[in-house]
Amino acid sequence: MVLRIGYVREHFCSPLLQFEAEDKGSTFTLVECPSGTGQLISRLTNDEIDIAIALTDPLIAGIAKGSEAYKLVGSYVTSPLRWAVITGQKPSAYNQISDLQGSTIGISRNGSGSQTMAYVMALQQRWPTSELKFQVNNDIRGLINSVNDGTTSAFMWEWFTTKPFADAGECRFIGQVPTPWPSWLIAAHPTRGEPAAVRTFLNNLSHHVRAFASKEARAGPSVKFVMDTFGYPETDVKEWLDAVEYPEDCATIPWNVITDTLGVLQQAGVVAPPEGAVKQDLFVNPDVVTLV
After folding, report:
1. What are residue 29's DSSP bridge partners?
2. What sign does the dihedral 135-138-139-142 (CA atoms) show?
3. What is the torsion angle, in degrees rounded to the nearest 10, for the CA atoms of residue 261, residue 264, residue 266 and residue 268?
4. How many angstroms separate the CA atoms of 85 and 172, rounded?
5. I need a surface site. Which of 24, 31, 165, 221 has the fewest CB within 10 A?
6. Non-local CB neighbours of 216 within 8 Å, separated by 6+ positions
7. DSSP code of 273?
8. Biggest alpha carbon–alpha carbon distance for the chain
9. How far is it, in rounded angstroms, from Cα 248 to Cα 184?
């Protein structure tokens, strides 16, 4: 079967794009989801994709809230995600994170990383998370327009994806919040993707991830690929590559990633505490993934 892989076209997906160029549609096709993880989860639910490469926190939160549209099957990026806190281009009352308390935060979709990380930011700032206010603005362009027309105070998005807009003077960075967990996991619909086909995809993806993240590739070829594909300046690409970490085996997930993420999301008020112990088979597909 030819798998439908949902992804966000950002620099993190570089090994996936290299895999696609080699595969040429023989085992999978890519489905771009520019609105991020909220859109990826929606497309898994609506039978538009079979596998999603998406942010850790919304995937885990979705399952904790009762979604049966997917199970976790692997890891994609093991380093934290660096979220920028972004406001409008003009001088305003919003010049640091503490200025945002009580204001309306822009998000891409309900259940997205931009929303769950706003809860984490509030937790770190000791704000009552129950008082957070959000406005859905769909994608990066809608989010930037919203902070500039004043309907929202700020939004959160990955640092290097947003930096070109800040460099062009379209918005301002006023802070950053790194995730307290590894940033990207892989989820699959529990029945649409045959376990053998999903395992094969993950094994082949692991090969491309290892090649992209190798010391030799980081010294030159991977820098050039990201620059040529995404148009980022060399200094930004090298800074990102110095920090990003990929797994050796994409078909593994440390169990503590799931439990630790759940713990923070519970503290932030994103999900309710479970009744009893966390059940592994609720979150992962044991026919595909190896818990470590």
Report:
1. 4
2. negative
3. -130
4. 8
5. 24
6. none
7. P
8. 55
9. 14
Task: Map residue 231 onto helix, strand or coil.
Answer: coil
Query: The tokens of 52 are what?
Result: 């999603």
Scanning the structure block, which residue is given the tokens 């807009």?
Answer: 165
HSE-CB for 180 with a 13 A CA cutoff: 18
Token couple for 81:
């995600």
- How many of the other CB atoms lie within 10 Å of CB of 121? 23
CA distance linking residue 46 with residue 32, whole number of Å: 15
Chain position carrying tokens 């309907």: 151
Query: Which tokens in the block code for residue 142?
Result: 């809608």
Task: Give tens-digit pLDDT for 13-66.
Answer: 999 999 999 999 999 999 999 999 999 999 999 999 999 999 999 999 999 999
* DSSP notation for 232-261: --HHHHHHHHHH----S-TTEE-HHHHHHH
Between CA 50 and CA 3 the distance in angstroms is 6
pLDDT of residue 275: 84
> Residue 249: which residues within 8 A CB-CB, separation 6 or more?
206, 290
Residue among 237, 243, 250 at smallest CA distance from 209 = 250
H helices then E strands: how many in the chain?
12, 12
- Helix ranges (DSSP H) in the chain: 14-23, 37-45, 56-64, 113-125, 140-149, 159-167, 195-213, 215-218, 221-230, 234-243, 255-267, 280-283
220-253 pLDDT, tens digit per residue, is 999 999 999 999 999 999 999 999 999 999 999 9
Joined tokens for residue 30? 């890519």
Residue 9: name the closest of 240, 231, 195 by CA.
231
Residue 199: what residue type?
R
What region does 4 belong to: left with phi over 0, alpha with psi -120 to 50, or beta? beta
